[in-house]
Structures are given as C-alpha cells and as structure tokens.
Amino acid sequence: MWAAVAAAVGILVLRKPWALLTPQLWAEDGSVHLNDVDAWGARAFLIPYRGYLHLLPRLIAWFAPHVADVAHWPGIYNSAALVVTACLFARMASPRLNLPGKPWMTLAFVLIPHSGEVFLNITNLHWLADIFLVQQFLINRPATTLQRVGDHLALILAGLSDPCALVFLPLFVWRAWHDRDRDSVGMLVVVALCAGIQGYFLRSTGLHYDGPMQPFHLLRLLSVMGSRLVVWPFLGRHATSSLPAFSQALIGTAVVLVIVVWALRRDPRRPVRARILAAWALLAIGCLFRIRPDTWTVGLDNLSFAEPYFYATRLLLVWVVILEFSGPMRRVAWLARACCLIGVCLELPYYQQPAPTNYHWASHCDPIRRGVPAKIPILPDGWILQYPGRPPQK
C-alpha cells in the first residue's frame, strides 16, 4: 500500500515537473488568494469567493508571506498543494479505511484520464479536499484521541474549502443514524457546522451563472456526462472527438446504469459499493447543478472546459469498477481490469503535461514587494494578475 502511495506521488510529479521546478501562479492563486490575503491578512479566511469559503488555499496564501519573499510564493503554493495531495494518498493507507483494492484506488488518483488542472495549484485544491470527506464517510471509528482529532481536523479543512459539506451532509446523517455511536454523531456535528457556514455564504451571496438561463436540454447533458465520465476514461480522448453526441450519451448512460445495477447486487461488498455510489451521485448532482452543462454551446463542450468539476466524480466511478478487481466472478474481474488498463494505455501519449510559457515570476513580482499596483502575467496563458497595490501603512 505504501509503495502505491509513493508511486502515486512520483507519477504526479512526473506529470507536471514544471509546477515544482519553475513554479508560477495559476489563475485564482494570484487574482483571488494572493490579492485577498495581501489586502486583508487573516480576515481573508472569512471572505467568500464564488459564494463560499476557501479555507485551505487561504491558509497556504497566508502562510507564504510569513516564511519567504514574494519571489518564492508560487513555489510554496505548489509545494503545499503537493503535500496536501500526498496526505490524501497516505490517508488511503490507513488500516481504518477498509477497502478492497486500495493500492489501485490510490493509483487511480493519478492514472485516470484527466487534464492535470486539479493538481499542484491551490486554486483547485478544494476538489481534492472533497475526497477527504468521502474518506471520512468510509473510514472506521477512531481508536485513539489523536485519530479522533485528526478526523475532525480533516473534516473542518475540507468542509470549509468548498460547499461539498452541504453536498455530502446526507451521507453523514445516514452514518450517524446507522452506526449510532458518538464518533459518527461527532462527525455529523462537524460536517453540519461546516455545511451551515458554507450555506450561509451561498445564501447571502447567491449562486450566479456565467451565461443566461436556458431551457433544460437532456441530450446535451447526457452527452457531456457520457464523454467525461465513461467515454474518455475507458475509450480514450479520441473517441470523445469522433463519436457524435447521441452516441456518447447512449454509451455513457448505458455503462453507468450497468455499473450501478451490478454494484448494488446482493453480496458482502454491497455496503461499500453503495456508499461510494452514493457519494458519486451526490457529487455529480451538485456539480451538474452548479455548471449546467446542458446549456453549453458546442464550442465549450471539450475535455478541458470545466474539467475540475468532473475529476472527483470520474474518480469515484472508477473506484466502483476497481472494487470488482478482486470480486468473486472471474470474468467480471478481468473485464473490469481490462477496461481500466485500456483507459490508462489510451491516455499515455497525453499523460505528461507540456511545460507552459515561463513568465519568470521573480522578474515581475517586485511591485508586490513594494505594494504598488501592477499587471503581472501568470498561468494559464492569457491570465493577468491585476495587483491593486497595498494601502500605505499609518
């Protein structure tokens, strides 16, 4: 298991070595988290962005200026994101997380087809933090006070980094009702508090869509889900560009239905599969409600657009397939292994993310050091950090 954790970390670094060797800010790393912490300090923890709090990235952005010069902040941001991700992988190795096929589930974090956008930046770190919530839902009761404190700390950090405490709240309600022990109730209380806080900010700031509201379009919704959750992971990205929308909708719907029906069959592993499926369904519904892919135009329906919203749902669906690797039916086990292997092999030519433009952050960041307004180029290409400057100290 620990070999799988080490391999996952190594594969992640090999995928985006430039994020650590020539680190640069990514999108909201600078325009939101750096700017807000620079202007407000620790008070930025209570400033919502996109309607909710972002505790983990705010903590990292607040930590960086206390330990290093501004020239090193991108390196601290990306390194901290790597540490959090490594902790997520290491959590899979806990004996309390009793899941079959854990090494493969750990490797799935980095081997499933994905754009790499969720990794090694603090902007998208909350998508990985969501998996901490899933792990806490699946994990066995703590045996020591230290484990109990660690559980609650993980819930707080993840629950206050995006709205998934609201999304996954029904899971913890069910666990508290089912287990009826003080630890399950304690976890429910923590998640409910985080959900209440995030719900308050979502209600007060409101949910806003980038485009005008449009009528519901079922085929477009199913085609996007089919391409992101089934066709790309198991048939490769070429299939997503060559198959028509109707075919992707049909394939995606059929495969998901087969996975769900088969996973809910009666056998000793049914409770584990059902819990992961429940987490997958709630997260998928929450993400689809947030981004409304049924309203996307054809030009926006590509694998990179809104990719972070599909990463965790894709991972959880693949976890359900991985659970069949060691199942009692050999034909099904070999079919599940073959599907995952084909998906990995088809993605290999695209696996290492090419190094982007190096904007030489250290040569542009002196205005931040002096606290004067500046426009600084950062990643992704075309993104400009509008640094507003720092008010004079009295």
How does this structure look, described?
There is one protein chain. This protein has 394 residues and is mainly alpha-helical. The chain is 63% helix and 3% strand. A two-stranded antiparallel ribbon has the order 1-2.
Helicity, as a percent range: 55-70%
Silhouette: globular
Count of alpha/pi helices: 18
Low-confidence stretches: none
Instruction: Label the structural class.
Output: mainly alpha
Instruction: Determine the N-to-C terminus distance.
Output: 55 Å
- pLDDT averaged over residues: 93
Q: How many strand elements?
A: 2
What is the topology, as strand order, of the major beta sheet? 1-2
Write the H/E string, N to C.
Answer: HHHHHHHHHHHHHHHHHHEE
| Strand portion | under 5%
Major β-sheet annotation: 2 strands, antiparallel
Gyration radius over CA: 21 Å
In short:
With 394 residues, the protein is an all-alpha fold. It contains 18 helices and 2 strands. The mean pLDDT is 93.
Can you tag this structure with a few keywords?
394 residues, mainly alpha, two-stranded antiparallel sheet
Summarize the SSE layout with pairings.
Elements: H1 2-15, H2 18-21, H3 28-40, H4 55-67, H5 73-92, H6 102-111, H7 125-138, H8 145-159, H9 164-179, H10 182-205, H11 218-235, H12 237-242, H13 245-263, H14 270-291, H15 308-322, H16 330-347, H17 361-364, H18 366-370, E1 374-378, E2 383-387
Antiparallel strand pairs: 1-2
